[in-house]
Amino acid sequence: MPMVINEGDRLVLKKKHPCGGNVFTVERAGMDFRLRCETCGARLQIARRKLEKSITGRITEE
């Protein structure tokens, strides 16, 4: 069963972006995702299967 990931979620990934950040915001959800690096603002696209394997945590605002 696929993991529930929504637009606006903030995810912590295993691998760091070349800028050094590892926190990303989900901009588009579906079979593949568009993520935005919170450190430098770069956008990247990644397949659902690959993303689900690389998530180490979520940041929630309460």
Protein described:
Helices cover 11% and strands 42% of the residues. The chain has 62 residues and is mainly beta. The model has no long low-confidence stretch (mean pLDDT 92). The protein is built from 1 helix and 5 strands, in the order E-E-E-E-H-E. Strands 4-3-2-1-5 form a 5-stranded antiparallel sheet, with helices on one face. It has one domain.
Task: Summarize this structure as a short list of keywords or feature phrases.
globular; 42% strand; 11% helix; 1 helix; 62 residues; mainly beta
Chart the SSEs and their pairings.
Blueprint: E1 10-13, E2 23-28, E3 32-37, E4 43-47, H1 48-54, E5 55-59
Antiparallel strand pairs: 1-2, 1-5, 2-3, 3-4
Major sheet size, sense and barrel closure: 5 strands, antiparallel
From the spread of the alpha carbons, the general shape counts as: globular
Helix content: 10-25%
User: Gap between N and C termini, in Å?
Assistant: 27 Å
Number of domains: 1
Q: What is the overall pLDDT average?
A: 92
Structural class: mainly beta
Determine the number of helices (DSSP H or I, runs of at least 4 residues).
1
Tell me how many strands there are.
5
Question: What does the radius of gyration come to?
Answer: 11 Å
Low-pLDDT runs of 5+ residues are none
Series of secondary-structure elements, N-terminal to C-terminal: EEEEHE
Identify the quaternary structure here: single chain
Give the neighbour order of strands across the main sheet. 4-3-2-1-5
Beta-strand residue fraction = 35-45%
